[in-house]
Write a structure and sequence with these properties.
The chain has 4 helices and 4 strands; from the N terminus they run αβαββαβα. It has about 140 residues and is α+β, with helices and mostly antiparallel strands. Strands 1-4-3-2 form a 4-stranded mixed beta sheet.
């Protein structure tokens, strides 16, 4: 398992290199749901994502505006588009996998794929009102 995590982090760091930062990177977790199982809700997915924080910023990744899209399929598979504040983000090697792991732990979640995207570029305007209020507290 450790070798797999190291490989994923190496792939992410390569994807984020200045020359190749637009290369696609995906963090994957979970297992397929069995037929007939109830699929989780978008609200539950958002709450799971809100448990993941960038350790350098006291705001969760959802309220930071780092989640660009959540697509829940009828079979329970969940596809999430996520960005980072900058291509050289020092915790980039862990955040996408943390999001995938948190969401796949939900009852009714199948395979979870978190795709790192760079377009559009993140700006502070992408933060939710809750995220901006949290920043104002610090």
């Amino acid at each position: 398992m450790s070798d797999e995590i190291d490989q994923r982090e190496a792939e992410l760091l390569e994807a984020m290199s200045l020359d190749e930062y637009k290369k696609e990177y995906k963090a994957i977790a979970g297992t397929p749901l069995k037929n007939g199982e109830t699929v989780t809700t978008k609200e539950a997915v958002i709450e799971a994502i809100r448990q993941i924080y960038d350790p350098e910023i006291p705001v969760n990744v959802y309220d930071m505006g780092l989640i660009y899209g959540i697509d829940i399929k009828q079979n329970g598979d969940i596809f999430i588009d996520m960005t980072l504040t900058a291509p050289g983000c020092p915790v980039a090697g862990i955040l996408p996998q943390q999001v995938a792991d948190a969401v796949c732990a939900l009852v009714g979640a199948g395979i979870v794929e978190v795709k790192l995207v760079w377009e559009p570029q993140w700006t502070i305007e992408k933060m939710t009102e809750e995220g901006r209020a949290m920043i104002d507290l610090f």
